[in-house]
Specification:
This protein has about 375 residues and is α/β, with parallel strands linked by helices. The chain has helices at about 55-70, 95-100, 105-120, 140-145, 175-180, 185-190, 200-205, 245-260, 265-280, 280-315, 320-330, 340-345, 355-360, and strands at about 20-25, 35-45, 75-80, 85-90, 130, 135, 150-155, 155-160, 195, 210, 215, 220, 260. The chain has a 6-stranded mixed β-sheet, with helices on both faces. The protein has a 4-stranded mixed β-sheet with strand order 4-6-8-9.
Length: about 375
């Protein structure tokens, strides 16, 4: 019996609040548990805040991927989250607003951890599957794109939020998204911050696979809020994957409310992909994954440090205002008045604490 060296930096069993680590047997092609071969499931566990990652959670993800890389009996890694509302909506805006806002040196240190999290995913010695159980937004989109495959609930949505909340999507999206969907669509997503449905994401090449998870009566139906049954409208425009409107949307909402979300088909699809990956030569697969990842790493390694520095400094200005607005503003009014901000900056006002305070949104009744 070989005695192996321990290559973990800290004990493998070390836990971090908000991150769970699970080992599951790999299924053979007949659906039976294979003896001695596992997948590692890394769970973001902060569902009350849409699985947004805190500083401690970032540390936990780094540790979990390092652990999964080192476990010799793990064939693949699944990166996912608790619940059915969100995979991840990015960094924890409460923590950003209440601690990092106005503290560029502290945010710079945080961004070192964030960069290490993304790099840890890209350097994992096993193929990584992002299991998208709900929203994959902002930093959640970035850590999701660092994975090698994405399998999503067809109720999921994908997108960015940076420029609307005081940041730039420089934690990976400006590096990775053009590789997935091309420059024009990447520009659209990164600047306009409008979300894509799972069907759009699949059509654009952002994700590998999607699965209906809405159970109505005895069966599953496709996302009733999205056009899924045709490609062109009467004017020849592509509408497949677009959100429904008008009466179709109203009927879709009724159908959605009548059903229940059951992620069992999503899990089955993920398990099937794990089986396919396990039925290959492990070292050849690892080298192939590394080679394909180089296209993402080339951009990430070139830009991550300068992006980190800019994001740190930005915590003195637009990020300080944007994250605080999202954290402090009333529901439905969590953004600054962009046009007023532009007018005031153009007139020469400076980024002072008083200026930032004056930008905080108020409810229509208070305005």
């Amino acid at each position: 019996m070989t005695t192996f060296k321990d290559h973990d930096l800290i004990p493998a069993a070390t836990t971090f609040e908000g991150v769970r680590y699970e080992r599951r047997p790999v299924l053979d092609p007949h659906g039976k548990a294979a003896d001695g071969v596992y997948s590692a499931w890394i769970w973001l566990d902060n569902p009350n805040q849409f699985n947004s990652y805190t500083t401690d959670m970032v540390k936990g993800v780094i540790h979990a991927f390092r652990r999964a890389s080192n476990e010799r009996d793990v064939a693949a890694v699944v990166f996912t989250a608790v619940g059915n509302r969100a995979f991840c909506t990015g960094g924890n805006t409460k923590e950003y607003a209440e601690y990092y806002s106005g503290q560029p040196a502290e945010y710079l240190a945080y961004m070192r951890l964030f960069n290490d999290m993304v790099t840890g995913i890209l350097h994992c010695d096993k193929p990584v599957i992002c299991r998208v159980n709900g929203m994959r937004i902002a930093g959640g989109q970035e850590i999701g794109m660092a994975c090698d495959f994405t399998v999503a609930s067809d109720l999921a949505i994908f997108g960015q939020a940076g420029p609307r909340h005081g940041s730039a999507p420089d934690g990976g999206s400006t590096d990775f998204l053009p590789l997935f969907v091309g420059i024009e669509r990447a520009m659209e997503s990164c600047t306009l911050c409008e979300t894509w449905t799972a069907y759009q994401a699949e059509r654009y090449g952002l994700i590998h696979d999607l699965v209906p998870v809405l159970r109505v009566a005895d069966g599953f139906v496709t996302n009733p809020l999205v056009v899924t049954d045709r490609w062109l409208d009467e004017n020849g425009r592509v509408v497949h994957g677009l959100p429904k409107v008008g009466e179709d949307l109203a009927r879709g909402k009724e159908l959605l409310a009548s059903g229940t979300i059951d992620l069992a088909p999503l899990d089955a699809r993920v398990e099937r992909l794990i089986t396919k990956l396990a039925m290959t030569m492990p070292n050849c697969t690892r080298k192939t994954v590394e080679s394909v990842r180089k296209h993402k790493l080339a951009h990430w390694d070139k830009n991550r440090e300068t992006n980190r520095s800019w994001l740190g400094l930005n915590m003195m200005t637009e990020a300080a205002a944007g994250f605080r607005a999202f954290n402090e503003g009333p529901k439905g009014h969590r953004e600054v008045d962009f046009l007023d901000l532009r007018r005031r900056l153009a007139s020469g006002e400076r980024w002072t604490p008083e200026f930032i305070d004056s930008l905080m949104p108020r409810s229509p009744q208070e305005a």
